[in-house]
Amino acid sequence: MLLEDRVAFVTGGGSGIGRAGALALAAEGALVVVTDRDPDRARAVAEEIARTGGQAEARALDVSDAAALTAEIASGAARHGRLDILHSHAGIQIPGRLEEVSPEQMDASWTLNVRSHFVAARAAMPVMKAQGKGSIIITSSNSGVQYDREMIAYATTKHAVIAMTRQKAVDYARHNVRCNALCPGFVDTPFNDGFESQMGGRRALEDYVARAIPMGRWGTPEEIAQGIVFLASDRSAFMTGHALVIDGAECL
Ligand code: NAD
Q: pLDDT digits over 146-156, tens only?
């Protein structure tokens, strides 16, 4: 197994890509602290991991609460004696062009898509530095490497978090703490409900996916989870400051 004796901390791990990543990390031997704003979802994923013989614990955590996020990461590391992998995943998508997005909605996007990743990495870094090793995976999006239509808050914050990830990568490379961004394309999870409405319904969204993505389909959470395991493990030991795009060539 690739991640035996490692401890992972996942935010937004109760559904979709975060859930699939948590299951995949646990399947490779990691003990996974599954956190989510919705405690029932976090618990369900931790129970699913336990049922398949893995190790996990569930914690309720809203990443917009900086003090709670910092405290959860510190206490998780203290309880389990180490912290090897941080997958900072929770995010928000507010659709709209410049004149349609309010400053408050822009602030909300910034809080989830940039600030929470800053806070999480800031809490994990001292532990990883002291260990002389760690992998921080920040979920951006392929919207961080391309420009969507009518998505100013999302595209701006997802670009910004890649810049922040690269800056951290340079600053902490000597400590062997690797910082990489995960950039999924379309994955069929509840996260796209807002975009579905913006497109005019499910049928229009399916047509869009078939047309706009060169591979002609959605990615699956499990396909993205393979990227998470790769970035978490020593398979990517010399990779830091990278934005790993997994999107069926949509951004090309
Ligand atoms: P999802 O809707 O399946 O799951 C999101 C989970 O995050 C839910 O369990 C929800 O309860 C939790 N959550 C929401 N707000 C939270 C908060 N403030 N604190 C803690 N937990 C919170 O979504 P998903 O598909 O896993 O996508 C989520 C992340 O992946 C986002 O960062 C998003 O930008 C990114 N992403 C998704 C797609 C996609 O197509 N699904 C593509 C690119 C990037």
A: 998 899 999 99
Among the atoms of ligand 1, which is closest to the Cα of residue 142?
A: 43
| Cα 16 to ligand 1 centre (Å) | 7
- Tell me the C-alpha distance between 210 and 106, whole Å: 30
For domain 7-245, give the fold. Answer: Rossmann fold (3.40.50)
User: Catalytic residue numbers?
Assistant: 154
Q: Report the pLDDT averaged over residues 192-202.
A: 89
Any residues with CB less than 8 A from the CB of 77 and at least 6 apart, and which? 7, 9, 83, 124, 127
Residues with CB under 6 A from ligand 1: 11-12, 14-18, 36-38, 41, 61-64, 89-91, 93, 112, 139, 141, 184, 186-187, 189-192
pLDDT at 199 over 90: no
Cα(174) to centroid of ligand 1, in Å?
Answer: 31
Strand partners, 17: none
Global pTM? 0.98
Dihedral of the CA atoms 248, 249, 251, 252 (nearest 10)? -170
Q: Ligand 1 centre from 12 Cα, in Å?
A: 6
pLDDT at 195: 85
DSSP letter for 127, please.
Answer: H
pLDDT band at 194 (very low <50, low <70, confident <90, very high): confident
Ligand 1 pocket: which of 9, 10, 11, 17 to mutate (most atoms within 8 A of CB): 17
Q: pLDDT at residue 198 above 90?
A: no
Pairing mode of beta strands 31-36, 7-10: parallel
